[in-house]
Amino acid sequence: MKSDAPHRLASRIAVAALCLAFIACETPDIPPEAPPPSASGGLFAVDDARLRAADPKSWLSHGGSYAEQRYSALDGIREDNVGRLGLAWSFDLQSDRGVEGTPLVADGVLYATGPWSVLHALDAATGEHLWTYDPEVPRSYARSICCGVVNRGAALYGDKVFIGTLDGRLVAVDRRSGKLAWSTSTVEGDRPYSITGAPRVVEGKVIIGNAGADLGVRGYVSAYDAETGELAWRTYTVPGNPALGFESPAMERAAATWTGEWWKAGGGGTVWDALAYDPELRLLYVGSGNGTPHVRWLRSPGGGDNLYLASILALRPDTGELVWHYQTTPAETWDYTATQHMLLADLEIDGRLRKVIMQAPKNGFFFVVDRETGEFISAEPFTEVSWASHVGPDGRPVEVDVDYRSQAKFMRPSPYGAHSWPPMSFHPKTGLVYFPVRNMGSIYAMDAGWEYTPGDWNTGLAMSAFENFGSDADGGRWEAFLLAWDPVAQREVWRVPHVTAFNGGTLSVGEDLLFEGTADGRFVAYRASDGTPLWESPVGTGVMAAPVTYEIDGEQYVAVAAGWGASFALSGGEAALKAGVRGGGRVLAWKLDGDAVVPPGRPPLGPVPAPTYQVEASSAERRRGMLLYQGKCSTCHGPGAIGGGSGVPDLRYLVAGQHALFEETVLRGLHSANGMPRFDDLLDAEEVRGIQSWVLEQAQRGHDATRE
Ligand code: HEC
To answer: Are 567 and 502 in contact (CB under 8 A)?
Structure first.
């Protein structure tokens, strides 16, 4: 506790207690500067007025404000002193798994989420631990999660902090005590729904979507009463079985754009990340995801746009009613979600001030849409795109030669997307939008024999296409960079190359500053107008999440949650290994003249040892093992059995003792308590032997390569 505090703090506790007792406090007593933190007091109710005002000294909601601009007007840290930044504190998240969360900061307390949906409250000035809430997600649930056991953040309202959990619960925790206030399941039936995204609170309702479209679910977004946890409304993004009737006219209209029996696999369209809100228009914006299966010819064999997949949806916040939609990828068939960050701003376009919503989704085009009407304004590719030549004046992308039914096709972007969830930021002083881009392609091939299989991935993509993964045959040329984009002129202004893909989201600050963490373990300040690097610090692990900034006792802090892992580190193989970092989650905060020491990262694994174990398997069994591995194991252990430095083991390094227990591990869940799922419902002993034999071959190959 700060020395100047006791008296001030006592009166603040009294005010806070009043405010918390009467949640509807008209004008919240926002302290002129954030009060000193305390586990027992100093917390002021976060209400609609406070969320709307978005005081730059705090970071009250995921995107910094309802408009999700991730811009702060604080100017304690500027170009002329940014070189004096030093670490103020760091906090160990005690996990090697991927970290994607944006912290929140209110009343001197920083709320950070880590792997397995664990929530921590820290003193934002010192990093001192106040409390941890662990929702104890069953580790066996890992198999129902596509892209790592991640969480992207929390929401604040009243006296509570809200998180979604990997197993699909929405949880409210008391901000003072860290104790559970209420918990509700958002999951329908026994489908593999999960939650990785951050909730938002709009007009007293907690808004949350789900993930799961790669495995097979029907997407929706739900609103819960923040006080009680009661479901207020649920809006589906894709139609269900028409024979059961439609939930709304919007669903009936959508069903006319689908064919076949799409509902059996769920249809997809999950709302796994982006949300935004315009309190004046009273519109809630929701980004929807890819289809289940990914392959359109299997999902909807008679064609159709498959509304509302890969769309921006504008909803009424009190009822969830659909007001307008804009589909970024009609009939998507490449995993091109529109769940990426949506950012609201008022821009002068062709001499007119337009209220716009902006998105740079996976499909590689930067979209500017009128957020009042849904009218398309403009779209241009922000990197190489091979699936469409351009977006027409009617707002519809013009596809080129996309049919991969009879022959595999190499196309850009890859299912990772040209840009995915790492948040963008908008700098009102430069008028530019900043985000990390990967120019990568992938082979797309259809598995003509695909059938919906509960509990498995249901993409409809043929794994045989990945046989030559990593060789030139898959068109391996790729690059990644930080991009500054002019959304009015729809053109690139500058770029800074990155070492590898999956770099951090961005934060725009003050007059001309921009912050971004990198996959290769650095935290960097740039001049926002031209991309000149001004300062950097090592982080000790890869950064994927976006930073935040806040002020306490007149001092400005910049904080980020770091930790290499999750989708790309898990499944990016050699490309991910290029980052040269490993997992080791931590939250770090810098301030001027900070003198704390950045904790060192985990050392690299070193050369692949020669395998000393053998299993009997024919070459046909081994080849089948490779295909099974690509379909069921590569999403966590990497393609080619090459781990990307994530917290999941690189199987090439297994020692004989671990190989002796391979079958026990894979079929009977020997390590399920640590997130290694059991597969006895999908694999038999012979198939596991085939996988093991192929893994050993990869280990030998890796060993030979390091000796060359
Ligand atoms: C959802 C992610 C995930 C998937 C999918 C997955 N694994 Fe794992 N696996 C893990 C994790 C996490 C561990 C580390 C467990 C631990 O720390 O004990 C692991 C560990 C292992 C180990 C080493 C256990 C030891 O002895 O330490 C083997 C072998 C293994 N996995 C094989 C496989 C095979 C084969 C597949 C596909 C059939 C597969 N895994 C799919 C997450 C996954």
So the answer is: yes
